[in-house]
Design a protein that fits this description.
alpha+beta
Length: 643
């Protein structure tokens, strides 16, 4: 068994068997990310306050009340024996390498960590926000404000061989999340006598879950934005027969805190109300399943059919999956469990006592075969009318349309060109704001009209557009007619991003601009004032304002705040949030999988392989990533020494 590392410190793990490989992957992960593994394990168990102090209490309360570790335990117990052995071997490797002062892991700990990474990717926070907005402003609020909360940005596309330079398919993409330090994904290559797979893994979870190249087949995912979570209004009466117990949370440098765990017949109560609370119902809770039985079949896959059969085990989050193999087959499907339930629950939280009775699962999820000279693009959007069976809220179509436009212009797509598609910074979503500004005389309007719509780091006009947009969002958000929505999250900081009115306005700006006097707002007057204010602001480039900013739960020294091109709703969706021009979320990985020549494949992450800031591999990929680049997926002949 060996762990060899390439020039960027990325582990290429070799095992004599599948279980030996799992042990080595666990050991290598501790070498790279011991601190991250500690934090994520404690978060899954609702114990992060033991390490982080009071800053971890809100998450711990949610984790315990949502039964995250219990669901992970159930999922492990319900998995196939071979899956259990795979996870247990990984945990053996972790435990063998952990520092002496770390508690040992349990066999189900990887399952709990997997759930921690996904539980807030569903729809329940958006439903709670929409519920409050409709009560405050009426049904118009639901139609004019997009409700998925923090902006999405993930892209994935697959191009058939008839359009590529090698004559075989290409897959490329970039998942978007908050910038965390260490990075949420880790690059890894796993080789044994059964398979040889390169891709991205969640630290703490064995195998390669979301993005992988197995030689003969490759796959990638984006969030399908499906509606698979429900929340229910619980009252004192409805909780009369609920199961209850109290747990004590230890707090570093503080007094212990008790939390009551309450489980109704609809689900665990995760949020408090004066006379009850909100209970949460998810597929993983109902089934006691996290899709763990997909892990080994994905590694062993050789064809598109193999990958699709592996994802038949998938539960949540519900994802778009694009798959291609060396036979030339290219396919897209939605994978996961979407419940069938009363229509009302797809839009607002449930109230009726029997409203939780899910009637099985949607059995015809969207699926597409791609023509030999075609392509498929997924970007969190409503890709087709068939998506109506999985949800009601999707990301705007701008990124998907722009990727399609760029692919249409290519006939012999190669790896380099595929990577450039992902670094495109054309701001198409801002067209409605620019068009509306044309009726307002002045230098700002003239500059916006002449602007090339590129959100380049060195562009002063991109910065001007961003200032106009920011001032307009601020003006709308501070208007008296929206005062009822201008309140902090009633459920604490954990759900604050979904309740931030300026973010809602920014995400919905295009829709608002398309309506006359929405909520009685005179948008032309507000836009004129925003343009006047932007014209008086100090001139900067976009990159001076828009810089990479990461968050570390371990309190590490931050990496350089490099200038970034891109913007929310660009393909290179380095997200913008009102009130701060720094980018705190964006592509947490970027990859190009070449089926014609795996050695030509590329990948990159914003930081690096190592979690320790003292390591030369902590952020050695950052500059390449920031300029939209990718790095080679090195073969073993390019390796350094083993361990």
């Amino acid at each position: 068994m060996t762990v060899r590392r390439d020039a960027w410190g990325i582990p290429h793990v070799t095992g004599s068997s599948v279980l030996d490989l799992a042990r080595e992957q666990g050991r290598a992960c501790v070498e790279d990310r011991a601190g991250q593994l500690l934090v994520d394990r404690l978060r899954g168990e609702g114990r992060s306050a033991e390490l982080l102090g009071v800053a971890g209490l809100e998450w711990d309360r949610f984790a315990r009340r949502a039964l995250l570790d219990a669901i992970g335990h159930r999922a492990f117990d319900g998995a196939e024996p071979e899956t259990q052995a795979f996870l247990a071997a990984y945990v053996e490797g972790v435990n063998a390498a952990l520092p002496a002062d770390h508690e040992p892991w349990q066999p189900w700990t990887p399952a709990t960590i997997f759930l921690v990474q996904h539980v807030l990717f569903g729809t329940f926070p958006a439903k709670l926000w929409r519920h409050g907005a409709v009560e405050a402003l009426g049904p118009e609020a639901a139609s004019l404000f997009r409700a998925e909360g923090p902006p999405q940005g993930s892209n994935a596309y697959a191009v058939a061989g008839g359009r590529t330079a090698t004559g075989l398919p290409l897959i490329a993409g970039d998942p978007h999340r908050a910038f965390e330090d260490p990075n949420v994904y880790a690059q890894v290559r796993l080789t044994c006598d059964e398979f040889d797979v390169a891709g991205f893994a969640f630290p703490g979870v064995p195998g390669i879950q979301h993005f992988g190249h197995a030689g003969g087949v490759a796959w990638a995912i984006t969030n399908a934005m499906a509606d698979y979570q429900d929340v229910y209004r619980e009252t004192t009466e409805s909780l009369a027969g609920a199961r209850r117990h109290t747990e004590t949370m230890q707090v570093r440098d503080g007094d212990p805190v008790d939390v009551e765990v309450v489980v109704s017949d609809r689900g665990p109560v995760v949020l408090d109300l004066p006379d009850g609370g909100w209970s949460l119902r998810t597929p993983s809770l109902v089934l006691g399943d996290l899709g763990l039985d997909a892990l080994l079949p994905l590694l062993r896959a050789r064809t598109v059919d193999d990958v699709e059969q592996a994802f038949a085990h998938w539960v949540e989050p519900v994802n778009n999956v694009v798959i291609a193999d060396t036979t030339g087959t290219v396919r897209h499907r939605v994978a996961g469990r979407v419940p069938r339930r009363p229509e009302a629950l797809r839009r607002l939280p449930g109230h009726a006592a029997d409203g939780h009775r899910w009637d099985g699962w949607v059995d015809q999820l969207p699926r597409t075969e791609v023509a030999p000279d075609g392509y498929v693009v997924t970007a969190n959007d409503r890709a087709a009318a068939s998506y109506d069976v999985i949800g009601v809220d999707f990301a705007p179509p701008h990124r998907a349309r722009r990727i399609a436009e760029l692919l249409d212009a290519q006939q012999d797509l190669d790896v380099e060109a595929a990577g450039r598609v992902l670094s495109d910074v054309r701001q198409t979503a801002g067209a409605s704001l620019v068009a509306r500004s044309e009726a307002i005389d002045g230098d700002v309007a003239d500059r916006l009209a002449a602007w090339d719509r590129e959100m380049s780091a060195d562009s002063v006009d991109a910065a001007l557009f961003a200032r106009v947009r920011g001032h307009l969002v601020d003006a709308i958000s501070s208007s008296e007619v929206l005062a009822a929505l201008r309140v902090p999250s009633p459920y604490g900081e954990l759900l604050a991003p979904w309740f931030a009115l300026p973010t809602k306005v920014a995400n919905s700006l295009e829709t608002l601009l398309a309506h006359d006097l929405p909520f009685g707002l005179d948008l032309d007057l507000l836009l004129r004032k925003a343009m006047e204010q932007a014209g008086r602001d100090d001139e900067t480039t976009w990159g001076e304002r828009h810089r990479f900013t990461s968050f570390s739960q371990q309190g590490q020294t931050p990496p350089p705040a490099l200038p970034l091109s891109g913007d929310t709703n660009c393909v290179m969706a380095t997200g913008w949030l009102p009130g701060r021009d720094e980018s705190i979320r964006g592509p947490v990985a970027r990859y190009v999988w070449c089926l014609g020549d795996r050695e030509a494949s590329r990948w990159v992450v914003p930081l690096g392989a190592a979690g320790d800031t003292d390591s030369s591999h902590h952020h050695d990929q950052l500059e390449t990533w920031a300029r939209g680049g990718v790095l080679p997926v090195a073969e073993s002949k390019e390796m350094g020494g083993g361990s």
